[in-house]
Task: structure prediction
Amino acid sequence: MGSMHLSNLTLSHFRSHKRTEILADPRPVAIVGPNGAGKTNILEAVSLFSPGRGLRRSSAEDMARRPESLGWKLTGLLHLSDHIHEIDIRSESGAARQVRIDGKPVAQTRLAKLARVLWLIPSMDRLWIEGADGRRRFLDRMTLSFFPDHAEVSLAYEKAMRERNRLLKDQVGDPHWYGALERQMAKSGYRIHQARLDTLLRISRAQQQAETAFPVAELDLVQSEGSMPATEDDLREAFAESRFRDIAAGRTLVGPHRSDLYGVYAAKGVPARDCSTGEQKALLVSLILANARALQNELGASPLLLLDEVAAHLDSQRRAALYDEICALSAQAWMTGTEMALFQAMGARAQYIEVTDLDGASTVKSAT
Result:
């Protein structure tokens, strides 16, 4: 794949940006400006160059600039080694997102085969101590970076599970109605689980092989209760055996949607949830960097990294170490901060953008 970076990024009527164009090169992008100026909105725009709802998990309607609500459009050139793809992402008047690659309409999941995008944002600081949903999303974002079909497989599983849950809520007991759905869930659910396990193995290897200033996190995939069936057939049987229990609960109680990511601060042997706030943040940074190293080793290119306000929570030594690792990976990391001083250690290795608010609209200019 070679190098990966985004250039000629334009935001039209997206969030606080009425019309913004960023002519980025392969270097890291430091985005500086006061709170509320529209820095994170740029990162959110980049996050939409991969499948899913973006780093804020917002609806297409919520991303439209107010008060016009005319719909929005993002365009950019995605550079992959010696290939350049023109990406067009838009939503008209709150409608579902439409994606075009090189002028051709495609499913949103097609983006996974081109761009690899990882992010770390302030709302993830409590990842280790809040609900399992957030940890699954974090794991699935890593998994998608290695397995581009993970999004499609997950959608197939979720669709079949929604239909099964509808039967459960309607107290349907006839096995005939469940068979086909449970076969589909077993097929896709087993693939989801195996892809997650393979991802954890890749992340573990990348951490063990690296010299890094950030702590190693030992990761494991656990179930909310019991254990994940070992084979596709076992999973299908587990769905069948659990029907009466599931009918009582009104939902499916077994499967990969019940998995959780368990982390341990390896050097101290302390569960991530029991670590200090700073240690929990350092573990997340470590995992993002390990993911990028593993992708570079496997594909020959680092993913796009979106790091919102990360520098502000690191001391100067850790901050410099982070920048050194990003540059060693040749990763185009889009980073935000309120002060230029936060990025001083980057020097000429980065490109700088200043974002300000002018009469309710974000304005962007190059900075030095």
